[in-house]
């Protein structure tokens, strides 16, 4: 199951997110060879103002995704941003220890930079969309061949407390 969620007012949200992300200084960045900027390697306690802002923005959308998945509860395991400049990429990988991977497209200057999911046709997302898919799906960020920056916020999520709709339907039929 692949879910694409359109985030309302994304243009303003993305401007705010980029300002907040620009405040992050990552002294460990030299260890990241294929991504120009990320906070993945920073300690969890490092100040990340964009996280609260982003979480408050996506919370109602995550509630709606939970409803689609017949879940009453959800949680996010971790957040990080990544910025890709020319020649940057993120090779094929999965996200263990979670049910879903989520990618929010803050800057997506061209469809050639959309996250690719192995075995799936080209995903049609735009800047300001949230892409949600099973965490065990192999995916990658293709090589950025442009002189434009791609920025994403990614996070892992899981959904709990299954709401058994079939049981309610059967009870009504009795």
Note down, in words, how this protein is organized.
The chain has one domain (3-173): q2cbj1_9rhob like domain (Jelly Rolls, Sandwich). Helix 1 (10-21) packs across helix 2. It has helices at 10-21, 49-68, 165-173; strands spanning 3-6, 37-38, 71-84, 90-93, 100-107, 116-117, 129-134, 139-141, 150-162. With 174 residues, the protein is an alpha+beta fold. It is built from three helices and nine strands; from the N terminus they run βαβαβββββββα. The chain is globular and about 50 Å long. The model is unreliable at 167-174 (pLDDT under 50). It has a six-stranded antiparallel beta sheet.
Q: Give the CATH architecture.
A: Sandwich
Biggest sheet features: 6 strands, antiparallel
Q: CATH superfamily membership, which one? A: q2cbj1_9rhob like domain
Cα separation of the termini:
32 Å
DSSP E strands, number: 9
Mean pLDDT level: 88
Q: If helices are DSSP runs of H or I spanning 4 or more residues, what is the number of helices?
A: 3
Q: Enumerate the strands of the largest sheet in spatial order, edge to edge or round the barrel.
A: 1-7-5-9-3-2
Q: Count the domains.
A: 1
CATH class label: Mainly Beta
Oligomer: single chain
Helix coverage percent: 10-25%
Secondary-structure map with pairings?
Layout: E1 3-6, H1 10-21, E2 37-38, H2 49-68, E3 71-84, E4 90-93, E5 100-107, E6 116-117, E7 129-134, E8 139-141, E9 150-162, H3 165-173
Antiparallel strand pairs: 1-7, 2-3, 3-9, 4-8, 5-7, 5-9, 6-8
Helix pairs in contact: 1-2
